[in-house]
Amino acid sequence: MAAQLNQFFLQSVVIDGEEIPREMVTTSTYSSHMNMRAPVLELHVRDVNNQLMNERKMREGSSLVTIMGDSENGADWKEDMVIVSCPYGNDTVRIVAIPKALHKLHQRAVTPRFFVDQNPKDMLSTLAGDSLQLAADPFNQITTYHLDPRAKPSELIETIARDHGARAWISRGKLNVRTLSALERQKPVAKYETNNPSAENLFTKTRHFTLDEGYLDKVRYRFSAYHETDGYISIGKKEYPIKMISNANREVLLNQSLTMIPKLDVECEGNSSLSVGETLTVLIQRYDTESALDESVETSMTIMGVTHYEDRRSYVCRMILGVVKSA
Questions:
Q1: Topology of 2-103 in CATH?
Q2: Is 4 exposed, middle or buried (0-12, 13-18, 19+ CB in 10 A)?
Q3: Which residues pair with 30 in a beta bridge?
Q4: What residues does 68 pair with on adjacent strands?
Q5: SS3 category, 215
Q6: Domain 108-179 is found in CATH 3.55.50.10
Q7: For 30-35, what is the mean pLDDT?
Q8: What is the mean pLDDT of the segment spanning 96-108?
Q9: Structure pTM?
């Protein structure tokens, strides 16, 4: 019985202070991506008499607190969320919620904010506020950004990240801002295989992408800037067109030529520890006696997106895996 309970990803749901019976939730989908538009939780709740909206007064803007993950092994976490949509039909309410911290970052600024001659990490910490921990790579420079009226803090965070060759996303109470070069160097946290019955972790479905040219074409530039003491600095092949940027830091220029390319769309048995930004060892086995591995597929990939899906019978994960490449 304990092993059966341990399959479940969604442990509990509390809406406006009242717990929803777990058996009312027929499906749950928790999706995270390497951008500032996620994570998103979607619940399908069986509610024949629409009590949630009539008696409990649930509505857009209601508070939703959930515990997700593997509680039996201490690998669960709590999310304070806000409901952004809750349409009702066919005796079921479809609840869509995002973290309160993310919802706040998507509210447009009323007054301008100026970040003058500051380290980007300090700016990101200020924008994240008290509700998010900041997990960011070091940015060894001083720069200036403005948050204009009607602009969203989430957009400024993504701008700061991309200007420094990084990606920004929220995951499990943290604002992550990681450079692509750092993601490329990090060590795998788990190994997944295909067509190997003795493997500890297996992909049950795999689909390959061939999108390299489209992604690389966007960074095929000679990124250039003017430095006050070093003069004109340029990074990239001479045959590429010049693209001027304001940041003359050599490391930033190098990061601009990097991109993350989706390579695999995979599914596997549910694993609550899988999270965006982690790196996996990937072994695609072939039915070939001479060469067991598919060498056309990189053996180290980063999770660009992961969806935890659970219904009353199963719990699975779907992931988009990618690699960092240079133009």
A1: Thrombin, subunit H (2.40.10)
A2: exposed
A3: 41, 308
A4: 10, 77
A5: helix
A6: yes
A7: 96
A8: 96
A9: 0.90
